[in-house]
């Protein structure tokens, strides 16, 4: 079976003991059979996070003290993301599953609200409810492995789950941005080793997205063209930072990479988010993203710790200049050394990269997949 056999998936919906939603996405010919979640969980409190406005930067900060109690590096036999056929041991009460998505029990954002946040933050020193949605995406029922280890049709199912959740969350009142991402590796701060990612539905545009859109608007005003399209055209023409180019996508190390390992994947035509991609493009994106992760895992003797992100925008006046792209970054700058975000990066936001983008691209081009 190839990735192109994947079609739009309707998930099986389930409810956990405390009322959180759980969805199962199945490979063709399979059907998950969940059982009742019998854990004695306390009632949910959707008011445990709040938003506070930093007037020195004009940015919102999420305060979520409940995350101090989240599960931290449990033994493999107590992993909450492994199947729980008894309904007593896991966040996923089922004997097996392919891909599962559920509301995060220790969510940074939770609860619903359709009142827009005030641009100026509202009254000083007054917190606002931390409305939004945080979900966990389990790539596989297997406790070990990674996205790069998944068979291509299974990886494509994960992408389909991202697409489904993007559509769902984008349509909810009060959600301004949907962010699908993965953190992998102890060096990144991962507390659960089971292969998984997360999705955040923010009630505001994140600082990075807002800054990117301002740059894109300024570029349009100055040149009459789209910033992302021009970046792709110039990177393709230069060639020396391109890792791989297919009919529909291009993977490259950006000219001004901030991280010792950083790869971007751009679609070759303008799209805003996963919903704009057709089935063939989704297949090609899955294959190239999968290939990039496999190359990165061959950089050093041990698998690469990384953060992976999907940058998505809406087709609205405020976000129309944005273009979908994927980004993978790592703090590892050699086989034995990490890049720490010290004062220049963490306080001043002035990044210093110890690796030239051209050298990284040449290395990645030479690695087998």
From TrEMBL:
<keyword id="KW-0299">Galactose metabolism</keyword>
<dbReference type="GO" id="GO:0008108">
    <property type="term" value="F:UDP-glucose:hexose-1-phosphate uridylyltransferase activity"/>
</dbReference>
<feature type="domain" description="Galactose-1-phosphate uridyl transferase N-terminal">
    <location>
        <begin position="45"/>
        <end position="205"/>
    </location>
</feature>
<keyword id="KW-0862">Zinc</keyword>
<dbReference type="GO" id="GO:0008270">
    <property type="term" value="F:zinc ion binding"/>
</dbReference>
<feature type="domain" description="Galactose-1-phosphate uridyl transferase C-terminal">
    <location>
        <begin position="217"/>
        <end position="367"/>
    </location>
</feature>
<dbReference type="InterPro" id="IPR036265">
    <property type="entry name" value="HIT-like_sf"/>
</dbReference>
<dbReference type="Pfam" id="PF02744">
    <property type="entry name" value="GalP_UDP_tr_C"/>
</dbReference>
<comment type="similarity">
    <text>Belongs to the galactose-1-phosphate uridylyltransferase type 1 family.</text>
</comment>
<comment type="pathway">
    <text>Carbohydrate metabolism; galactose metabolism.</text>
</comment>
<dbReference type="GO" id="GO:0005737">
    <property type="term" value="C:cytoplasm"/>
</dbReference>
<keyword id="KW-0548">Nucleotidyltransferase</keyword>
<protein>
    <recommendedName>
        <fullName>Galactose-1-phosphate uridylyltransferase</fullName>
        <ecNumber>2.7.7.12</ecNumber>
    </recommendedName>
</protein>
<keyword id="KW-0479">Metal-binding</keyword>
<dbReference type="InterPro" id="IPR005850">
    <property type="entry name" value="GalP_Utransf_C"/>
</dbReference>
<feature type="active site" description="Tele-UMP-histidine intermediate">
    <location>
        <position position="196"/>
    </location>
</feature>
<dbReference type="GO" id="GO:0033499">
    <property type="term" value="P:galactose catabolic process via UDP-galactose, Leloir pathway"/>
</dbReference>
<dbReference type="InterPro" id="IPR001937">
    <property type="entry name" value="GalP_UDPtransf1"/>
</dbReference>
<feature type="binding site">
    <location>
        <position position="143"/>
    </location>
    <ligand>
        <name>Zn(2+)</name>
    </ligand>
</feature>
<dbReference type="InterPro" id="IPR019779">
    <property type="entry name" value="GalP_UDPtransf1_His-AS"/>
</dbReference>
<dbReference type="InterPro" id="IPR005849">
    <property type="entry name" value="GalP_Utransf_N"/>
</dbReference>
<keyword id="KW-0808">Transferase</keyword>
<dbReference type="Pfam" id="PF01087">
    <property type="entry name" value="GalP_UDP_transf"/>
</dbReference>
<keyword id="KW-0119">Carbohydrate metabolism</keyword>
<feature type="binding site">
    <location>
        <position position="82"/>
    </location>
    <ligand>
        <name>Zn(2+)</name>
    </ligand>
</feature>
<feature type="binding site">
    <location>
        <position position="79"/>
    </location>
    <ligand>
        <name>Zn(2+)</name>
    </ligand>
</feature>
<feature type="binding site">
    <location>
        <position position="194"/>
    </location>
    <ligand>
        <name>Zn(2+)</name>
    </ligand>
</feature>
